[in-house]
Design a protein that fits this description.
It is a single chain. By secondary structure, this protein is mainly α. 61% of the residues lie in helices and 0% in strands. The protein is built from 8 helices and no strands. The protein is elongated.
């Protein structure tokens, strides 16, 4: 369920007057769609973009414990940066010109995206290791793929 900031209870009189004077432009948090991995990226982007507004709304409603802490925001930023690599690959395979030969290119891109960086958090290192460990299961380099790559 998405809610706008104007849906928050306990709006002060000053806030109500301010809302009436300002033009209404609503931003909504994106929801996850379980069948599409990139919906997680859009949801994280949405949270990071509206972080101040969400935090203010949570504080105004007494939900201080649900506000994101600095280390959680950094983790979300790292995760967004990692998932951005896959967004471009999704666009590539969603185009009208796709072939099995793209699998080798995509595998190489995923290996590059999963390369360890010294500044990676433990959580991101674990995610990168997991993605790389499952790469052969998700995108197997079969004889058919090798045939397309070589021809």
């Amino acid at each position: 369920m998405t809610r706008t900031l104007s849906d928050a209870p306990e709006t002060s009189e000053c806030d109500r007057k301010h809302q009436q004077l300002m033009p209404r432009k609503f931003h909504r948090l994106k929801n996850e769609v379980p069948t599409r991995w990139n919906s997680s990226l859009y949801m994280i982007d949405s949270i990071l973009h509206l972080q101040a507004e969400v935090s203010n709304a949570l504080k105004r409603t007494g939900h201080y414990d649900q506000c994101l802490r600095a280390h959680e925001l950094l983790l979300l930023q790292d995760l967004r940066n990692f998932l951005n690599n896959f967004s471009a690959m999704t666009d590539l395979v969603s185009s009208k010109i796709t072939s099995l030969s793209l699998i080798a290119l995509i595998c190489a891109e995923i290996v590059d995206a999963c390369a360890a960086c010294p500044k990676d958090s433990d959580e991101l290192k674990l995610l990168k290791t997991s993605v790389q460990a499952n790469l052969d299961k998700r995108l197997p380099m079969t004889d058919s793929v090798w045939h397309c790559v070589l021809w």
